[in-house]
Every structure is written in C-alpha cells, then in structure tokens.
User: Which sequence fits this backbone?
C-alpha cells in the first residue's frame, strides 16, 4: 500500500503549512490510517512518511542505520537532487552542515560547539540575554498598543541573541535576517530572494546565490577570527581542527551558515507562534501571570505547538523493521515533526495549547545524536523574553489575521498583528 | 547493572559499559558519576536521566 496521492501532495505542499490546519488534518488521517507508509509521486524518489512520535524516536535513536547525509536532508524532487550534485561536485546537500553529515564527522563537528551550549555553559549569559529581552520588550511597547509581533519583535530578538553569541556585529543583523529568510522561505514570494513565485529551477538557483553570498561573508569571518581569536562561537568554528587540519571549506561554511540561520529562525517562529496562541486565548496570559512558575511549561508547549522544523529526511543504510514495516537499504524517509507533536497516543488534546500538561515530550528539536545543538539556548532566551513580557502586558488580542510562511521545511508565522495594553 | 536514559535525546548510559572516553570506567554505577556530569549527546543534566525498565 502507498499513501493516497491527494494526501501525499497535501503534506509536501508548502501552502499546506501556511494554512496549518490543512497539514494537521492530513497528518491526523495518516496517523490513523497509514502511520508509516510510502508516498510515491512522479517527480520524487519514493519516500516513507513517518508520522508517529514513537517511530521517529526509534529511527533517530539509530543513526548508524538511518543516515542524514546520504541523500537530501530535506524533501527535494529528483531533478533538484541531480542539480545539487552538479553544483557541489557530487554531494546531495547544497550546504554541508551538522544536519547533513553522519558518524565520526558529525561527532567531531558537533564537539566544536557543544561544550559551549550546554545548560551549564550558557547560564552565565542569562543577564546579557535578559538585557536584550528588555530592550525588545521596550521596543514593542513603544509601538503604542499595536504591532506585528512577528516582524517587529519575534524576528529580531532571537537574531540579536544568536548574533551576539556568534560574534556578528549588530550592523550585520539585517543582512543575516534577509539571507536567512531567503534560505528557508524560498517558496514564499513575500520572503524569497526574487520576491516572486519561483519554479523549482529558479528556487534552486536563488538558493545557490544566497548560499554564495553567505559564503563570501563568512570567508571574511574566518580571516578575522584566525587573526584574532575570541570566545565567540564563530571564532571557535574558524579555529576548530579535526586532527591537525582546520575544517575544510564545506564544513566551515556549513557550520557558520547553520548557526547563523537556524540559530534564530526556529526560535523566532516559535516565539511568534506563542504570541499568536496567547492573543487568541485571553485566559492564557492571565494564567501565566497568576502562575509564573509555569513559564517552562509555556515555553515547552509553544515549541510543541509551533514545531518550526516541519521535517527532516533520513536514508536507511541497511534493511530493518520499524513498527512492523520492512524498510530496505536505500529507502528514504520523511520524519514529520509536526505530525509527531500532534500524536494522539502521546498527548491528550494535541490540538489544544495547554500549560498544564504533566509531561510534554515534544520532539521539535529532534532526538538522538542529531538533536538540536542550540536547544538549551533557545529555551533560555524564550523563557527570559516571556518573563519580561508577562510582567508588562495587561492584555493582548489579534488585530487582524495572522499569516504563516509558505514552506514545508523551516517555517512559522510571518505576520502576527496584535493589539495590546500594558500595566 | 542498570541502564539510564536521557529524557531529552534518548542517550543511554549503560553501567556495564561505562563511558571510557569520558573517564567513566565500565561498571560505574549511575549514582557514582559526578553530579556535574551531563549527557554527552545533548547536554541535559544528570538529574534528567531516567532508569530504564526491563
């Protein structure tokens, strides 16, 4: 059996994630009727769609069997994959980053930054991040009762935090935001490089141009930090060695790019989504103000709710069985984090935003050795922002329709118009 | 010998194997690992590991 074509087309269509209920409804049907089955579509290599929380965990716990880097790490048509190989000299991914490498290379690359982003390592940043959060809360309140929370706050605050940690000057933040949006929002005419509807060929071309622009920028970063090393994350990357050798060009660029893009876009999406949820639920702000000790539950639920990375792909390197289904060596699998975070067997009322969940094993950061490197920093910066905002906000409601980015990969709200009052 | 799982990323600490790369000898009980030890895959702290049932 394979997945019905209409369902398969719904879950790959970037527009289904802009109207999230479309993707949610399709995944709910799949979880009930075909939780692990293959999608067979003319323009793609066949791929398994993994919809259940338990199955994704089982796959991600076995990185020796399910590789990230053998094929494209995100869903890409067959033609696109061939063109990427031509551009990269045979590699399946345009960018060779932590999410697209495996085994010893992944371990070595991850160990460059990992010790600096553990909960203990980032604790000393709390005061600095709180000062940034207060600056952005003041910035929001200066809008005099209404703003687009996504564009005016949520895109900017995580950007400032990550650029501070990376050692990127503030004046470069607009450039980094623009290129991040181009990279992740290629299917969205409002945010992509051409500001237009693009054909698959044009999308790949514009992605390549954005990648080259980022590489030109980071080539200077390498020179700067090799001449004068600091404690900034970009300096660690610039000066990191595997054995006696600096990281090669692809590894270096991949590391800079993922840290400088995924390092804020995902948190921005989650923050914007949390405000959207608040603005539609007057009782939620009051509950948070009455019970500030629920702040971690609020952050965790907003990550589950928004699930900014919609999927990653894996490829099997040997035959194996998952949930009674026979997976063959070479098979390609789509891990749907959006579906897993709505799994009815894990959460009661998965389509409700609740801060009273006893357990919330959300899987938006992934699982296993590829679990998000920056997850603890993301949680901390969101907690601090909401602590500061909840002290000041008296009421908040939507001030028009929110809008989500058109994308099936890394995405979330792009407009969250709100009306608010302050204490 | 018991096994302990990181609640965050699923890393398993197997007391029988220890973690020789981190200076934790085979046979080291979870309780005997220093309190400031953290998950080698995701950084989660020791108190957020759970005992695995078999």
Assistant:
């Amino acid at each position: 059996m394979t997945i019905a074509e209409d369902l398969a087309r719904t879950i790959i269509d970037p527009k289904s994630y802009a109207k999230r209920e479309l993707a949610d409804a399709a995944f709910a049907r799949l979880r009930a009727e075909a939780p692990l089955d293959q999608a067979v579509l003319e323009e793609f290599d066949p791929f398994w769609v993994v919809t259940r929380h338990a199955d994704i965990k089982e796959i991600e716990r076995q990185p020796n069997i399910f590789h990230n880097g053998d094929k494209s790490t995100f869903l890409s048509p067959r033609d696109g994959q061939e063109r990427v190989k031509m551009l990269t000299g045979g590699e399946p991914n345009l960018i060779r980053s932590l999410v697209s490498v495996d085994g010893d290379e992944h371990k070595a690359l991850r160990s460059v930054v990992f010790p600096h982003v553990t909960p203990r390592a980032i604790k000393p940043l709390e005061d600095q991040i709180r000062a940034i959060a207060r600056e952005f809360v003041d910035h929001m309140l200066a809008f005099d009762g209404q703003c687009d929370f996504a564009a005016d706050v949520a895109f900017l605050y995580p950007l400032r935090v990550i650029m501070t940690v990376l050692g990127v000057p503030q004046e470069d933040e607009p450039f980094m935001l623009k290129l991040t949006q181009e990279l992740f929002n290629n299917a969205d005419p409002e945010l992509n490089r051409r500001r237009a509807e693009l054909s698959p060929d044009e999308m790949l071309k514009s992605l390549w141009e954005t990648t080259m622009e980022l590489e030109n920028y980071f080539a200077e970063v390498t020179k700067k930090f090799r001449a004068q090393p600091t404690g900034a994350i970009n300096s660690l990357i610039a000066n990191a060695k595997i054995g006696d050798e600096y990281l090669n060009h692809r590894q270096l660029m991949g590391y800079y790019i993922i840290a400088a893009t995924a390092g804020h876009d995902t948190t921005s999406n989650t923050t914007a989504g949390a405000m959207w949820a608040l603005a539609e639920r007057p009782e939620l702000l009051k509950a948070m103000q009455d019970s500030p000790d629920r702040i971690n539950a609020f952050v965790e639920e907003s990550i589950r709710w928004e699930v900014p990375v919609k999927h990653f792909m894996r490829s099997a390197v040997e035959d194996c069985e998952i949930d009674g289904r026979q997976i063959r060596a070479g098979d390609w699998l789509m891990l749907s984090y959006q579906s897993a975070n709505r799994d009815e067997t894990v959460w009661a009322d998965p389509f409700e935003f609740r801060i009273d969940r006893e357990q919330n094993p959300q899987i938006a950061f992934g699982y296993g050795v590829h679990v998000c490197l920056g997850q603890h920093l993301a949680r901390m910066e969101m907690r601090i922002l909401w602590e500061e905002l909840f002290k000041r906000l008296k009421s908040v409601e939507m001030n028009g329709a929110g809008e989500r980015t058109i994308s099936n990969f890394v995405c979330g709200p792009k407009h969250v118009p709100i009306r608010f009052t302050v204490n | 010998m018991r096994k302990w799982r990181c609640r965050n990323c699923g890393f398993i600490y197997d007391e029988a194997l220890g973690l020789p790369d981190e200076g934790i000898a085979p046979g080291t009980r979870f309780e005997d690992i220093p309190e400031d030890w953290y998950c080698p895959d995701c950084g989660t702290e020791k108190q957020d590991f759970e005992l695995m049932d078999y």
Summary: DSSP finds 18 helices and 14 strands in chain A. The mean pLDDT of chain A is 97. The first strand of chain A starts at residue 36 and ends at 39.
